[in-house]
């Protein structure tokens, strides 16, 4: 079943006389339980797609179905509920609250949703239970990103959206985070949409959507997705 369907979606910005088509009439779908990667160079429109899908931005034209509901027509109040209950976010720079411990950061997210996972269980799933009482400053970048993944998972989201989750990490730490996201997708049957400029990681995805100048230039499924150990860049 398709969890996400984009139908002829546009996002236009008017800058005086000029119109920028950040997203230029794209259609694609993401199946339930899929690990989908949206790849493209800087300015291709990836962030705009993720922001629209996460209910943080709206499209100018088109239809976006998430679990058969058109999110492009939701009211502000409905969008808040959508972001809160249905979507988990993982950002490039973790966005942790610095005066809260790892566990408290996860609890904070769990508190605002309906059927949260236990925060210690979420930290355990990312291999960080023993660091639950540490503040972000006491954790490495990779560990902070693990906390942010635990925070997203604690919400039991239908869809996990990841915006360049390894962008601030070194090569090996980035690989560990990608392995964790792939494992989460497989074990918890979580649908993951990850955006990146790094085309080398696309073999690990079930589904690769390549963007260029706001358009989709490639939309393929990998018959045999690779594990991160099989990929080098
Ligand atoms: N608020 C805005 N106003 C005007 N133009 C915008 C705005 N947001 C994005 N754009 C333009 O839309 C296009 C797509 O931007 P977007 O951030 O989605 O690309 P991206 O693929 O995520 O790039 P990056 O990898 O650098 O983050 C770019 O040309 C960008 O300049």
TrEMBL record:
Could you tell me which residue ranges the ABC transporter domain spans?
4-233
Q: Which UniProt keywords apply?
A: ATP-binding, Nucleotide-binding, Transport
Give the CDD domains listed for this entry.
Answer: ABC_MJ0796_LolCDE_FtsE
Q: Which GO terms describe its molecular function?
A: ATP binding; ATP hydrolysis activity; transmembrane transporter activity
- What Gene Ontology cellular-component terms does the record carry? membrane protein complex
- SUPFAM superfamilies in the record, alphabetically? P-loop containing nucleoside triphosphate hydrolases
Show the PANTHER family listed in the entry.
Answer: ABC TRANSPORTER ATP-BINDING PROTEIN MG467-RELATED, LIPOPROTEIN-RELEASING SYSTEM ATP-BINDING PROTEIN LOLD
Family note = Belongs to the ABC transporter superfamily.
For this entry, the protein name equals: ABC transporter ATP-binding protein
Which species is this record about?
Ruminococcus difficilis
